[in-house]
Design goal:
With 977 residues, the protein is α+β, with helices and mostly antiparallel strands. It is built from 18 helices and 54 strands. The structure holds 2-acetamido-2-deoxy-beta-D-glucopyranose (2 copies).
Amino acid sequence: MRDLTLLLLTLVALPAVFAVKSHDFKTCSQAGFCRRGRALAERAKENPSWKSPYSVDPSSVAIDSTTAAFTAGVKSSIYPEVKFGLDVRVHRDGVVRVRMDEIDGLRKRYDEAASWALVAEPEVSQDIQWTVAKDAVRAVYGDNKDIEVVVAYEPLRVTLLRNGKEQIVLNGEGLLHMEHFRTKEAVEQEKSGWALPEAPEEGLDLDDAQVVMQMNPRSWFEGAGDDALWEETFGSWTDSKPKGPESLSIDVNFPNHGHVYGIPQHATRLSLPTTSGEDAYYSDPYRLYNADVFEYLADSTMSLYGSIPVMHAHSADSTVAIFHAVGSETWIDVAHPKPSSTHTHWISESGIMDIFLMPGPTPADVFAQYARLTGTSALPAQWALGYHQCRWNYISSDDVRDVQTRFDEEDMPVDVFWLDIEYAEDHKYFIWDKKSFSDPVDMMHDVEEIQRKMVVIVDPHLKRTDSYPIYQQAKELDLLIKKKDGQEYEGWCWPGSSAWVDFFNPASWDWWKSLFKTVSDGDKWAWTESTENTYIWNDMNEPSIFNGPEISMPRDNIHYGGWEHRDVHNINGMLFHNMTTLAVMHRTDPPKRPFVLTRSFYAGSQRLSAMWTGDNLGTWEHMAVGVSMVLSLNVGGFSFSGSDVGGFFGNPEPEMLVRWYGVGAFSPFFRAHAHIDTKRREPYLLDEPYKSIVRDILRLRYSLLPVWYTAFREASVTGLPVVRPHYVVFPQDEGGFALDDQYFVGGSGLLVKPITSKDVTETTVYLPENEVYYDYFTGQTYRGAAKGKNVTVPAELHQIPLLIRGGSIIPTRERPRRSSPLMKYDPFTLRVALSTGGTARGELYLDEGETYAHREGQFIWREFEATTEGKKGKEIRVRSRNLAAQKPGEAVDGVALAAYDDKNDFARAMERVRVERIVLLGLAAKPKSVKAAGKDVDWEFKAGAAAASKAEGSASVLVVKDPHASITSDWDIIIQL
Ligand SMILES: *[C@@H]1O[C@H](CO)[C@@H](O)[C@H](O)[C@H]1NC(C)=O
Ligand SMILES: *[C@@H]1O[C@H](CO)[C@@H](O)[C@H](O)[C@H]1NC(C)=O
């Protein structure tokens, strides 16, 4: 939330008219380096004989004996005096890292982006044999020697191939351009020689690139103008650009991949629409420049709050990906010269080239490769997967208590109450406004009573006043970001005149961490008016600055180490939430799992925090795009994501609000939030039937918490996303590549299609395989087809299209409780959905949920299986096994499963937790008997119109009651038909 003037305008002008203030933000044509980069691409396209001027100097080629890296000098025929260095290395898992920097230049390019993003320095493969030839160097590797990386010398071109087929090509179009550092004087001196002839001379075809290049090579390549090299204005702001031009352009092509995904965050389709070429869908490239975009568009390439420069390229043959570790503003053009190939062009304002090529070849491989680079999502506290109730603002301690009471009176589960900026006196975070929050700790204790938590906001802007101890300390310790003249930077934000801590300064880290301690240590500041159940929301960390260029910080501001803000802008928000997360984690001893929600993020943010998609609007378009945005974030490695339920702005009508709860309940992060001038819309305020429908949706979320938690555990180990688009689950099924309105929850086999439009009573769901799918609620069956099939499913307001893929076992807990920790000893239900082959499988991961005891082996990890055995499939067995024991080679959070003891303290405490019900869908006939541990157990059978293996209809349902099965032990249930 931001922009006081607009806020006031919306307050008076009701109903609010939604309109992004597009003129606040640059288009490519308003950003000098993007304009130059696109113009370069234009010239290349128009000149058939275009050839990149960059080449490897063969005499400089060297192989480093310790890193097995291939290094070489690179030069540009346009600026023969400028030196560049190339470093290409292959990691142990086959990822290729390609770095290029200017050597001995006038200045140093920013080269630290990777150090913030990477979880560790990647291990380099020692098995790489580079073959050096006259015109190229190459290496063949991989278990089957099927991967090849080739660095061609002239022009410089890097190609990754698999089985001889091009996967990723760098500089194939010749758009590489690393603008070297130069002085203004040198450029001016040269300029005289730059002008092209006014009129073409007789017989000279100026379209002929060769001729122009010979006449004037620099203008041929860089363009004739002096386009915003030294100073740039936008609106009333001037960027002084003391370093001059230093942008980086590179084309990245996927000649055999027709879909690209990722590069969040943009409000767009998952399969990225084109921005250049014939019939481009968008006119501007995708922009990555973290920005607080007021009332953002639901279909646009504009930047939003965070940036992850990761792109997947996908075809039925393979999935590959790139990660470009760059922290400055970046624009990315996407084109499909053919439906089966993709060209992209990346233009960054500053920084070195540092591109990671991930060879795949499956989506799971790509996720694992990216996770080895930047880490996986941390396993969140279990309560964080419950429902979060937020509003700008709950106005007093009693208001919070009242909201809690109303939830309880209406039997609606909720885990967390949130406080936005108005809890803080004059927006001095940490300091309570005692007029309305006179007893904050008592209030928190009242919330903790139901084992609930609170989240309060701590933004990065510090009110510049001597009476604010946090600002005072930051100033005294010299931790604040500076202007280009070295003075403290002052900008305008919620508290008025504000300053910002420079989290790039290591001295800020321990200081910031100390602020969150709840117990005072001597006379030092401690946040005594908080508790260990107070968690944190970091907003406005793009950073958002009301009176700054593009509502952010001047690019010529100075950070630690002398770097300009432009160099680190996209990383800035991550450092802030990272430090907050570490602070929350370490305020107790032993540490507890932290929860910090961030709005701004970068590659690596997933290791520590959750994010949400910022200030969306209460419209159907925003609801729908929120789904594909969350999928895109999951592709970018950031699983713990969601959109504000209800939309931040506006007053959604009841139907819309109900549907939005359906979306939220199937997002990894599930929070309702609302702007200060919206009407109150807590779910208990709804009339019937809406209220009961939302209650059911909340309960559905809670009943499925075991599924979500198991999916988060898997994500935290493998890097596989918590919500999975079709191409991830069915990489060969072309019919699913563009789908972004239905998706799978982890590896559970749940397929959901939340409804995001008005007046819907039914919808189509795409089934990608010849398998039976069961309606989660009714057991109605649908049958897919090998090449994909659309089926129609009911979707009245009270219905969420939710299907179980045949072959899955879904563990749930179905006792309504007020908060998730209260479910700790609740029994389980297993929904066994038999495949056409009569089998099923599922997993359950459980631990204590808040501490790090799971890292010492305190957890339960079960596998459930159903198989059909005996003559003519007359016997069905359902069993539970310890999954950890089956994976001795694996590790969870660094703890080898080989050392796992299934009688650990946590498991023993859970022994009395039982499976109270098994619901078996798709049996071919009524059982003769159902036995557990050799004894008959109670059961009920409802015959279906069809067996699983047959056509569509209603499945048979067998309900086995209380089969005397503990959730922690091995058991077998035998069903005789
Ligand atoms: C977060 O901070 C820790 C401690 O300084 C550091 O090791 C880690 O790399 C940081 N991570 C990110 C994503 O900034
Ligand atoms: C399913 O429906 C979509 C949208 O109408 C359509 O594009 C697609 O071709 C259909 N797929 C099949 C297999 O019928």
